Amino acid sequence: MKFPATQNSILPIRSFIVLLIGCLAINLSLCFSSFPSSIKTLNVEGHFSFDNNEFAARDFGNRFRFLPSAVLHPKSVSDIATIIKHIWQKGPGSKLTVAARGHGHSLQGQAQAPQGIVINMESLSGQEMKVHTGRFPYVDVWAGELWINILHECLKFGLAPKSWTDYLHLTVGGTLSNAGISGQAFRHGPQISNVHQLEVVTGKGEVTICSEEQNADLFHGVLGGLGQFGIITRARISLEPAPKMVKWIRVLYSDFSTFARDQEYLISTQNTFDYVEGLVIINKTGLINNWRSSFNLQDPVQASQFKSDGRTLFCLELTKNFNPGEADKIDQEIDSLLSRLSYIPSMLFMSEASYVEFLDRVHAAEIKLRSKGLWDLPHPWLNLLVPKSKIHSFAERVFGNILTDTNNGPVLVYPANKSKWDNRTSFVLPEEDIFYLVAFLPQAVPLSTENDGLEPLLSLNKRILDYCEEAHLGVKQYLPYYTTQEEWRAHFGQQWEVFARRKSAYDPLAILAPGQRIFQKAISNL
Ligand code: FAD
After folding, report:
1. Concatenated DSSP letters for 1-59?
2. pLDDT tens digits, 230-283
3. How far apart are CA 38 and CA 45, in angstroms?
């Protein structure tokens, strides 16, 4: 069939327009895609994924979602170094940034890289861990390893790391980039105080071993460094003999001052408990019955008279480690320690658990929450470090006033000794010798307009932060979240200069950890 003359003459013009639009589209996508094809040709042992990367745009906070252009699943340290070096060599001409992703348990997109490359650090886990026994035992691990796996491996040698987080399904690289704090920190310091050596890939793609003795500035910078100076690929972690069992104790207080005084006593005295934490309980019902399923009440008759409903209570949580055969001796030590405390006498709950069961306790809660579809809800958490001299004003204003119930998630309060922290690391602490970790850990019910909805919980956090600011409490955020560099400068205070100097030394183009929103990637006009 022949086209009429007019149509015949239009055809080439139409084809040309289609071609032009096609070329424009290709060019535009090349212009706007920040992912250079040269990266795809790099020689890596692992692989890149360009599709189905939604997991890398998610985290535990479940509020921020930025898709990367690609995810690298490395098989070796040199895969990580190759990719970073390539971006570094491209200079400010490339927009690409790189985020290490541990287990993605950040709260506000800190392990995400909008349009950049996420490195899935867990691809490097599951490889051999080397436990070194002897007088000063340690374990060499990959940074993408979960702490729970490290615990199981070390227990084969009767050993365990000294300092923990409350939840062990987090990676070594993720917690060392923050601090790693739990109820053992008062004795051993945080996890960042219990590391001998690191292997780090800097923002220039250099693989560097660092420790107190070697490249000490990088070593200290990376610890608590929010991923800003390098990607930790391996760590050497200090170990101690592991106990088999723990005595697990909870006692209740109705008065914050007495509760805090006892906590401070326990973290300052010798031969004390092995773990000291605390919980605030506001307006909760059925508390004692809930605990009864896993704890024995020492005085059930007296306890049955006690009405917890609606009151603000403070629970001191303690453990004492022991091995079979030592139970009697440990019971005596516990009795002696408890006799020096001023809790409500009938409110003493005792239990025994294996060391693993105790350390992995939050995972047991995770399994229950997952089965009800409640683990993947938004988590507007707020973690604060409050100086000892201000904790009483803080408690008076916040517990029972700004915060009127704790039904949306636990609120932890416990003190730590600053002397167990190393002030050469990047971690920022309040100015006093003792400070409290106060952790508000709620989950938000989607679409709820009640107090358990996301917006009311976020405005509650804001009210708490505003109060801290107005009352000049000298509070620092843990797992900090800020959106402007001005706020970051204020957070770091006098440490900002060192932090910024380290950034220009180890990651001058600001390629690493863009999700922390501290520095902007240097970009020239393309
Ligand atoms: P990710 O979220 O994947 O990463 C966190 C940050 O570190 C990101 O900026 C990322 O880019 C960077 N990063 C990750 N890996 C590396 C690496 N190898 N090298 C350099 N940078 C890296 N914290 C405590 O201190 N104590 C607790 O008791 C505690 N309990 C928690 C309980 C739960 C249920 C959850 C969800 C979190 C808890 N946290 C606690 C917070 C936790 O320590 C941090 O969220 C930590 O960052 C999570 O580790 P991750 O492996 O998931 O890291």
Report:
1. -PPPHHHHHHHHHHHHHHHHHHHHHHHHHHHH----HHHHTS--SSEEE-SS-GGGG--
2. 999 999 999 999 999 999 999 999 999 999 999 999 999 999 999 999 999 998
3. 16
Angle CA 500–505–506, to nearest 5: 100
- 123 phi and psi, to 5 degrees? -65, -25
- Point out the catalytic residue in the list 274, 277, 317, 360: 277
Q: Ligand 1 — pocket residues by CB below 6 A?
A: 59-60, 99-106, 110-111, 121, 143, 165-167, 170-171, 173-175, 177-182, 226-227, 231-232, 362, 479, 513, 515-516
Which pTM value belongs to this model? Answer: 0.92
Query: 283: which 2 tokens?
Result: 């307006």
In 3D space, the residue among 79, 19, 50, 55 whose CA is nearest the CA of residue 201 turns out to be 79
245 membership: H or E segment, kind and range: strand 245-253
Amino acid symbol at 405: D
Q: Say which amino acid occupies 366.
A: E
Q: Is 152 a catalytic residue?
A: no
Q: Amino acid identity, residue 191?
A: Q
Name beta bridge partners: 478: 383
